[in-house]
Amino acid sequence: MSNVFMGMPTLPVFGDGNLHIDEPFPDAAHRELGNTQMRANLRHATHTIRDKRLKVVGELPDWEELRDAGAAIKNQVMADLPAMLEEFEKNFTARGGVIHWARDSHEANKIVADLIREQDTDEVVKVKSMATQEIGLNEYLEEQGISAFETDLAELIVQLGHDKPSHILVPAIHKNRTEVRDIFLAEMPNVDPNLTDDPRLLAMAAREHLRRKFLTAKVAISGANFALADSGTLAVVESEGNGRMCLTLPETLITVMGIEKLLPTKDDLEVFMQLLPRSSTGERMNPYTSLWTGVTEGDGPQNVHLVILDNGRTAALADKYGRTALNCIRCSACMNVCPVYERTGGHAYGSTYPGPIGAILTPLLTGIKSEENSSLPYASTLCGACYDACPVKINIPEILVHLRGEDVDSKREEKKLPSQMDLMMKGGQWAFSSGKHLGLLEKALPLGKLAAGRDKKIKRLPGIAAGWTQSRDIPAPPAQSFRDWWKKDHEPVAPTPDQEK
């Protein structure tokens, strides 16, 4: 059973699976910046989605009120999560569903694999799911001799291309249609060898490939966008209809869902059915919204299971500054406006969750000390565009600053001697603590001007400050400080005796 039932864990159990990155973000970003085709693809795609979103959001006079409502509902869920999970479990099981609790990816993967084996099959079809990507389910099933076929078009492209997703909503956003055509020709069985990069023909090829899987699959695996506590209902929203096929045709349906996906009642779903499509795809409503409540005799899957996943979520919930990251509804609006993501792409983040939300969610799920994940909170300019775009008002810049502080504090604890940054901050604290101290420091301004050289620019700084001058010059400091100039030209001069008369 999930840690959330026992309150906040004394020793947080952090998440695993595809959450730990292999190299620091700066190193990965530097490499990805050299991929000019990827950058061009990303710029075109994100700007298209961004413009569509602005148009449909502008149609609603109460958009900001909807954002406030969404944030309030999710905050209520996080405050009442233990009781709400118990309510959902009671209602879901009362309607014929079976719930399994998983502390981490290892437990979740084993549960799913065992359920598949019970159906005497070695193939499953999948609805697009961030939770199953997070736990590395496809890779685990492959090790167990079970083939998992992605049915979302973008996920199919990534899977056939032996690639990794780079975007929450559009996993193959880094690929253009010519690259997709090449992947289909190389990897898709029985594909027309004369296939062109016409989007309609590509979609038809994928449809023909997937239809055989839909009609023969005994087991389907899905995620869930929302779960309604008052009725035990699950909801999946998608744009292609592949999800509807997976959720209705197979005899067995296995859903993997994070504990944070709950909503209190069906009335709350109305708010998110307006927020989510506009924020994610720039549509007024979602093309396919599927809801199911347990088992309905003679209609749809008769063997319905739900794996409720913690995997670091209670650890994130225990962080009073970062817990609102769990409010995320996976719309990807923050990614589409982020200048860092647009230039580096999702692969640079190394985790299942890229972009601004990934820069806070991944370290919260895994712990700021985990492997290289401590570099992710620095993958931002703190411009605030992500906060403005977030439909549930997650203050991503504020959480980024909080996590940066946690990172600095954790590294300070590990080291006996103060770092260069510690010394610089101490020096700054001394300098700005009084006017006398600042005056002493200002006397060194002419030395800085002398060090700048003939072109009046400082091209290289020592130590940790060298990072600043790797890609920019600093203008030489003035010979005179502002305070000295003001004192000389603006402060009143004492009157002479004659003037006093």
From TrEMBL:
The keyword Transport applies. Residues 325-394 form the 4Fe-4S ferredoxin-type domain. InterPro entries: 4Fe4S_Fe-S-bd, FTHF_cligase-like_sf, Helical_ferredxn, LUD_dom, LutB/LldF, LutB_C, NagB/RpiA_transferase-like. GO terms for molecular function: 4 iron, 4 sulfur cluster binding. Residues 484-501 have a biased composition (Basic and acidic residues). The keyword Acetylation does not apply. Residues 420-488 form the Lactate utilization protein B C-terminal domain. GO terms for biological process: lactate metabolic process. It comes from the Bacteria. Pfam families: Fer4_8, LUD_dom, LutB_C. Residues 469-501 are annotated as: Disordered. NCBIfam families: LutB/LldF family L-lactate oxidation iron-sulfur protein. This is Lactate oxidase. The gene is lutB.
